[in-house]
Amino acid sequence: MTIEIKNSEDIEKMRIVGALAAKQLEMIEAHIKPGISTGELDRICHDYTVNVQNAIPAPLNYRGFPKSICTSVNHVVCHGIPSDDKILKNGDIVNVDVTLIKDGYHGDTSKTFTVGKCGVLAERLAATCKETLYKGIAQVKPGNHLGDIGHATQVHAEKNRFSVVKEYCGHGIGKVFHDEPQILHYGKKGTGAEMLPGMIFTIEPMINAGKAAVKLLPDEWTVVTKDHKLTAQWEHTILVTETGYEILTFREDDTIARST
Ligand code: MF3
Ligand code: CO
Ligand code: CO
After folding, report:
1. How many CB atoms lie within 10 A of CB 214?
2. With 0-12 CB in 10 A as exposed, 13-18 as middle and 19+ as buried, what is 143?
3. 39: exposed, middle or buried (C-beta count within 10 Å: 0-12, 13-18, 19+)?
4. Residue 103 has what pLDDT?
5. In contact, 58 and 100? CB cutoff 8 Å
6. Which residue ranges of the chain lie beneath pLDDT 70?
7. What residues does ligand 1 touch, defined as CB less than 6 Å away?
8. What is the pLDDT of residue 154?
9. pLDDT value of residue 221
10. Minimal CB count within 10 Å: which of 47, 70, 192, 233?
């Protein structure tokens, strides 16, 4: 296994596309209200990507994925396909996952939005998922191991009595959408590859209110919890720096330091 070390030109381009992806999530937030369909969210993001950001929506036609973003509502874990028939209602939670390509480089980020007024469990699950991502990010520095990220995310989720999805993971990213290494959201301290400055990967924990088990729907994209209980996901694209980390997809509503 080889993990690419980005040079300064790669890093500058990853900062640019990361900022565009972050901006897109900030843009879509105002549209997430009861009554809008996930198909409409997809069209808004698609048009913004292509016409305003002069970028490419990476999911569109990626391995046959039919839309420009993923929208995963309530018990949908990830890779939900936007549809005009899926109308958001008060109390739903929806993960919007955007990946942009600009100048050949990918920026990948997602967050779970609450729709209208949510119940306490949905609020707590979404908030804990964000904290879980931040616990993983806090482990990113040269000399630490990839397993330190998975350990930190698993401990935090399980301490809050949520379970970690094991089948899907974070990934190296750059000119390639899904590259090595895999970033597991569970594991043991000190295992896996050592982090080195110039590595760029995503951390994207999916945590479930019920059991960890998931299943794939017949559309071969939509992943749901087997028990149909709620699930949430949060994702950032992260650069390993000489001193720690830099969040390339940082937004104004993030509540962690952009870099260390
Ligand atoms: N953005 C997702 C990720 O975090 C991947 C989506 S692939 C798609 O890795 F084809 F479903 F869009
Ligand atoms: Co990703
Ligand atoms: Co993503």
Report:
1. 21
2. exposed
3. middle
4. 98
5. yes
6. none
7. 59, 62-63, 65, 70, 79, 97, 99, 108, 202, 204, 235
8. 98
9. 98
10. 47
List the structure tokens of 35.
């009554």
Tell how strand 170-172 and strand 105-114 pair up.
unpaired
**CA dist., res. 255 & res. 252, Å (int):** 8
Helix axes 120-137, 146-159, angle to 10 degrees: 160
Contacts of 38 (CB under 8 A, 6+ apart): 71, 73, 80, 82, 83, 86, 88, 94
Mutate to test the pocket of ligand 1, among 76, 101, 108, 206 (most ligand atoms within 8 A of CB): 108
Buried b (16+ CB within 10 A) or exposed e, 16-25: bbbbbbbbbb
- What are the phi and psi torsion angles at 206 (to 5°)? -110, 125
- The answer to whether 231 and 6 have CB atoms below 8 angstroms apart is no
0.85 exceeded by pTM: yes
Question: What domains can be seen in the chain, in order of their start residue?
Answer: 8-247 (3.90.230.10)
- Closest listed residue to residue 200, CA positions, set 1, 2, 9, 11: 11
Q: Which of 25, 45, 70, 177 to mutate to test the pocket of ligand 1 (most atoms within 8 A of CB)?
A: 70
